[in-house]
Amino acid sequence: MPAKPIDNHPLRYPLNNELHARPFPELTAPCRAAYLAIKQPANAAKRDRGLDRAHLLALLDRFGAAHPPPDATHHAVSLGRSFLKWEMHSEFVSYTLYADGVAERPFDGSAFDLFPRDWLAVAPGVVISSVLVRMESADLGKASMPALSRKLAKWFVPEGLSAAYVVDREAVVASDFRIDESGHVRFAIMANKGISKRRLGRITQRLLETETYLNASMLAFPVARDVAQQVDAMEAELNGVYADLSADKSRDSTTLEQMLGLAGRIEDLASRTAFRFGAAEAYAKIVEERIALLREERFEGRQLISEFMMRRYEPAMRTVLSTRARLQDLSSRTERAANLLRTRVDVETAQQNKDVLMRMNDRAALQLRLQETVEGLSVVAISYYAVSLLGYFLAPLAPLVGLEKYQISAAITLPVVLLVWWLGKRMRKRLEKP
């Protein structure tokens, strides 16, 4: 008979401010949990989510377990004596197996036996988080604390051990955040015998989320180191451009082209890393929130989980955020330099246009003077031909008035010149009217 899903289990709480709730098993100590988070190496946010669902169904079919609804983003179901919880996130999917009882040998990895090797080998992605959790009941009274501390020191590397009371001293949580030979990070939860099942489930889930989102955010760290090297080179190139701006104005056009090319490379780099850096910042905030929800108190002088994060995790996140800020600042500086250079080029172009217009104005004035000169010569030429024609026309009348031909030509010359000049001036005024 197939296992019955318990999607309607009453033990729920919201995760990551999503609208739907996530079911929890009825956890009781002692028990153990195995956790996997699988992510596609590239473009995980735009992945084919059908592959994730198909991988889940392959696991469920091996145990004859019920399938989730077609559009489900989370599923909880019993697998024999164990309990599986599957969740689909924006970049990865997670599988959590809860099993009753604990092995005599701490963290022996037997909880992972329900994840078949061949099934893991065909996973649509890579494992970004693999966690083993051991939950035991313990007497958290002061008298038993030294013995409990020695026990935890045997399970974990003492110099890296973080241990703290959590949620009003209902449990002690411990880990060294190191990956063991099987590739798992290990957590121990020593719970007070009177702890509620709901509270134990929430402690476990918050630890798993802390580890998963820590690893997801750290995916941006190698990207940040690579981007930082490129930013160093681009800053040196930008400084060279600034030097050219103040040294040689004759190369402004060439410098502007170089600046635009640099700005294009910067924007391309920013667009390619925007999602990864933005996701890292969001994941880091989730890690901080989950740790804060644990409400840690110091246990036997051990470092808190928050202190471990401050020493190991926060510097990496500061590097990521610093690189992102440097890239944004470089983009702004490049834009300002490009605007400055563009303004100077525009000013130079405007000055050149002014010089061209002044030369055109000088040429126009010269042309006008030449035109006036030509017009004066035209008056003389037209007057000459007009006097000649009138001379021929009036020559037969010269004897009648007792004058010679040359005397008539001389008499009409001045009136003809004045008439030609007046007609030319009148015609020019008509042509100049709009």
Task: Kindly describe this structure.
The protein has 434 residues and is an alpha+beta fold. It folds into 3 domains: 185 residues, no CATH class; 137 residues; 67 residues, no CATH class. Helix content is 57%, strand content 16%. The protein is built from 9 helices and 11 strands. The strands form 2 sheets. A 9-stranded mixed sheet has the order 4-5-6-3-7-10-9-8-11, with helices on both faces. The protein has a two-stranded antiparallel sheet with strand order 1-2. Helix 4 runs antiparallel to helix 6 and helix 5 packs parallel to helix 7. The longest helix is centred in the last third of the chain and has 90 residues.
Rg calculated over all Cα atoms: 45 Å
* C-alpha geometry: rod-shaped
Outline the low-pLDDT stretches: 1-23
Oligomer designation: single chain
Query: How many beta strands in the DSSP annotation?
Result: 11
- Give the biggest beta sheet: 9 strands, mixed
Structural class computed from helices and strand pairing: alpha+beta
Number of domains: 3
DSSP helical segment count: 9
> Termini, distance in Å?
101 Å
How much of the sequence lies in strands comes to: 15-25%
Helical percent range?
55-70%
Mean pLDDT: 82
Report the order of strands and helices. EEEHEEEHEHEEEHHHEHHH
Task: Give, in spatial order, the strands making up the sheet with the most strands.
Answer: 4-5-6-3-7-10-9-8-11
